[in-house]
Write a structure and sequence with these properties.
11 strands, 0% helix, seven-stranded mixed sheet
Length: 119
């Protein structure tokens, strides 16, 4: 019902920056959280960062002080600003929306965007 489209992935050098964007196909109302996950080959998917509709953010320890998550509700868009990139940040990054409905929580996922960091 809700499509999430990601953009901004690509190649960066260690110490460089990238900004990921994720836009939802329609406006999101009520209690909700948008976030970014990543999954590299041979590893399980991990949460990188999340942000509530009220602007409260949470980060994985591995990206604290380097990544910043933000959202523009008028544009139905969430961003992930990635600074001081490291080779271990290389992964496929997925946008996630978790929203409460009258019949329970519902998750939506983007298609993923590749981020590659060279040393």
């Amino acid at each position: 019902q809700v499509q999430l489209v990601e953009s901004g992935g690509g190649l960066a050098q260690a110490g460089g920056s990238l900004r990921l964007s994720c836009t939802a196909s329609r406006s999101i109302f009520g209690i909700n959280v948008m976030g970014w996950y990543r999954q590299a080959p041979g590893k399980q998917r991990e949460k990188v960062a999340s942000i509530t509709s009220g602007g409260s953010a949470n980060y994985a320890d591995s990206v604290k002080d380097r990544f910043t998550i933000s959202r523009d509700n008028a544009k139905n868009t969430v961003y992930l600003q990635m600074n001081s990139l490291k080779p271990e940040d290389t992964s496929v990054y997925y946008c996630n929306l978790n929203t409460l409905t009258t019949w329970g929580p519902r998750d939506y996922w983007g298609q993923g965007t590749q981020v590659t960091v060279s040393s």
